[in-house]
Write a structure and sequence with these properties.
It is a single chain. By secondary structure, the chain is of the alpha+beta class. It is 39% helix and 24% strand. The protein has helices spanning 18-27, 42-56, 80-100, 108-122, 151-165, 180-188; strands at 3-5, 8-12, 62-66, 69-77, 136-142, 170-176, 192-199, 210-218. An eight-stranded mixed beta sheet has the order 1-2-3-4-5-6-8-7, sandwiched between helices. Strand 5 (136-142), helix 5 (151-165) and strand 6 form a beta-alpha-beta unit. Helix 1 (18-27) packs across helix 2 and helix 2 (42-56) crosses helix 3. It starts with a strand and ends with a strand. The structure holds coenzyme A (COA). Coenzyme A is lined by residues 28, 32, 140-142, 147-153, 175, 179-182, 184-185, 188. Residues 28, 32, 140-142, 147-153, 175, 179-182, 184-185, 188 line the site of coenzyme A.
Length: 220
């Protein structure tokens, strides 16, 4: 199974891709730049955000491959409430134990970002989404060398086909106004802006006006 776009191939994720997917996730987390822009230890980021997709729902993950190298990925979740339960019951407790045992480096950047997240939540800067209409979600990231060559569209189309085959009614995703290439990709695929909130969450790392955005696509 796989869709070739010139020398790029889109295929389902395999467990052997895990390290490459997590590396690209961390290398591209800050609007396409490395997560170290706002966190001290990428292991904390990978455990808190990505472990769910690669370890608990790998059947909905896809990779872009060129010359046997993973160049990008899309990780998906068909039922966001299921992901939220898994985070509350398994992933957050495991990460908290690692944190208390000193297994993550926690420095000024991490503390500052954690405080900014809490403040943004209190100011209601995270967009709302109707999970009954848009139960699925996704994250997509490509290695910087492989952007603009069709892999993003290929990954999205593979995942959207999969969700339609499962009769999932809708899919959403979260991004920011700073992710301009991503916004162009989602808009071209028919996603609509569901909610946008001005935010100061990224004030330490980006200048000017920034919005947290949620886009959605009905699949029925
Ligand atoms: C966003 C991302 C996944 C897009 O993947 P990509 O392979 O670069 O995009 P594609 O080449 O498949 O382009 C898809 C469409 O978006 C458009 N597009 C891509 N990059 C664009 C850019 N920088 N500006 C405007 N439009 C752009 C293309 O014109 C294309 O439209 P078409 O297929 O109708 O011709 C990739 O650029 C990326 O990983 N960026 C950094 C991480 C990131 O922001 N991830 C998303 C977090 S929410």
């Amino acid at each position: 199974m796989g869709t070739a776009t010139s020398e790029l191939t889109i295929r389902p994720y395999e467990q052997a891709d895990r390290a490459a997917v997590l590396r690209i996730a961390a290398d591209t987390a800050a609007f396409g730049a490395p997560v170290e822009v706002f966190l001290d230890d990428r292991r904390l980021f990978c455990d808190a955000v990505y472990r769910y997709y690669v370890d608990y729902e790998p059947e909905h993950a896809w990779v872009a491959v060129a010359a046997a190298e993973v160049t990008g990925f899309l990780v998906g979740c068909a039922d966001t409430r299921r992901r939220d339960r898994c985070i509350a019951r398994r992933i957050a407790p495991a990460a908290a134990v690692n944190l208390l045992r000193g297994r993550y480096r926690v420095g000024r950047r991490t503390v500052r970002h954690a405080c900014a997240e809490v403040a943004a939540a209190l100011r209601r800067e995270f967009p709302a989404v109707d999970l009954a209409a848009y139960p699925a979600h996704l994250h997509i990231n490509l290695d910087a060398r492989w952007r603009g060559q069709g892999a993003g569209r290929g990954l999205m189309e593979a995942y959207l086909r999969q969700l339609r085959a499962l009769a999932v009614p809708g899919v959403h995703l979260r991004t920011t106004s700073l992710n301009t290439a991503a916004v162009a990709l989602y808009t071209r695929l028919g996603f609509e802006l569901l909610d946008a909130r001005a935010t100061r969450l990224w004030a330490q790392v980006a200048e000017g006006y920034v919005e947290n955005r949620c886009y959605g696509l009905r699949l029925g």
